[in-house]
Amino acid sequence: MNWRVHVRVLPRAGLLDPQGQAVQHALEALRFPDASNVHVGKAIALDVSAETEEAARARARQMCDRLLANPVTEDYEIEVEPAGERR
Amino acid sequence: MRVAVVRFPGSNCEPEACRAVERAGGQAYYLGYRDRSLGGAEAVILPGGFSYGDYLRSGAIARFAPIMEAIRSHAESGGPVLGICNGFQILCEAGLLPGALVRNAGLRYLSRPVSVRVERADTPFTNAYGNGEVIAIPIGHGDGRYVASDALLNELDATGRVVLRYAGTGEPGVPFNPNGSLRDIAAVSNPEGNVVGMMPHPERLADPALGSDAGHRVFVSLVNFARSPTPAD
Prior knowledge:
The complex is a heterodimer of chains A (87) and B (233).
Chain A: E1 2-11, H1 18-29, E2 42-49, H2 53-68, E3 74-82
Antiparallel strand pairs in A: 1-2, 1-3
Chain B: E1 2-7, E2 11-12, H1 14-23, E3 27-32, E4 43-46, E5 48-49, H2 67-76, E6 81-84, H3 86-93, E7 100-102, E8 110-118, E9 134-141, E10 145-147, H4 150-158, E11 162-166, E12 185-189, E13 195-198, H5 216-227
Parallel strand pairs in B: 1-3, 1-4, 4-6, 6-13
Antiparallel strand pairs in B: 2-5, 7-10, 8-9, 8-11, 11-12, 12-13
């Protein structure tokens, strides 16, 4: 079965994130002073074919460790849901 | 000294790297990223550029190119490998050098001369410079901020693996540390010293016709290294 996997990659906490800072300053300038702790990362979506949700998650974790995230500078989160109708 | 310059999709300055090697008395030739053998190379240069469009992260996809296995074996057997700019990023992604290169602190692409201090004049790529010598060579990068954990930075300092550090000399227009690299690091080596990555482009300033050949001695160093007797001799 196919699983829809969403990977969120964010700069490691504590590492200078100039993009996040620039966006936060822009939000402040647009009068959103209630926004803080802004970080900019990337979202990667893919279908993974696997027997179970856990198996799909384990494969996605391997993909992150191998390629999708840099272990020196980034952290990642994975969400898995049943894939939608085949197109 | 036979030097292979590896071309990835999106490499740049590879002709300059070949010319710089030849002007220093070496013999240079190209390898493609799909090649699987180094063709008898004694040293390898990974040039600058934007391999695979810098998609995902700079160097993240090039590190899996077929040629990288041969480069890893060459590096692990002590052969000299120099990564320039994108080549440095690829070597970090491949785990042949420690740390990572991320977006410049100022978020802008920088193309300008910088001053760097030679902190290690005993590598295959810096032995023709004096220890502590400051040279001005160009940078051209958007992702040049060197980052690593504090523990790793301490280890790099303690074991003398920082090869070049940004060292502005106060001249107007030359920033001290252009990209926010931790501890002003512009180049590092592996523990053995045979693999070096640097963000500046010495091959872009290696001919006096350009007004300076401050980068020339990187390539002279490599040719010197080939001629020097090995410790076992």
